[in-house]
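WARN no homologs supplied; continuing
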Amino acid sequence: MSSAQRFQRAAVPVAATAVVLAGLLSACGGDKGGQPEPAAAPASQVASSTTATAALAPAAGQAPAVAKTQGWLKIYGGAAPAGTANTVQLNVTSNPSVGQYVSDGSGRSLYRFDKDTAKPSVSNCAGQCAVTWPPLTVARDQSVYASSVDPQLVGFIERADGTCQITIGGWPVYYFSKDQKPGDLLGQGVGGTWFAVAPNGGKALTK
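OK structure emitted
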């Protein structure tokens, strides 16, 4: 066997491995030819690339209908059925001081950052900021259920590290590391730029 033939045979598995790794590294990649979703697409482009259907409450015993898709992510209206695995749940919680805001399925408060942008959706919290304010992320094997939050307002962006961060009304959403239990709102008003996120993506402001 010539040296060229041996090189060609050895190169095939290496090339295949590179393709697999490229797919794994693109965690937020879209489902159109393997190309990644743009991290900062204008709202008009996002709207044109999503498929929306009416978010109807499912009848008893029926699985909920998909209310919206963005690339590979399916977003449902309502609560995830009992026993459903690999989900991100969004709920609305009321607090006497701030009114209604969004929490996750365990009741942990979610926040938005004034230094981010919604049109286009861009996160400006990375590094140590993202340690203090961990982003709410979703993986390819998960789906999102939005209860009392309009599913059409829910989406995701790709962060610089390749993870997929949930957005509401275009605003990336985060936890606050100092919140210790469901219902904690210790991040409200921090730095004059962090606020609990309202169901429409706006700020839940102290009354």
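The helical segments are 3-25, 43-49, 128-132.
OK
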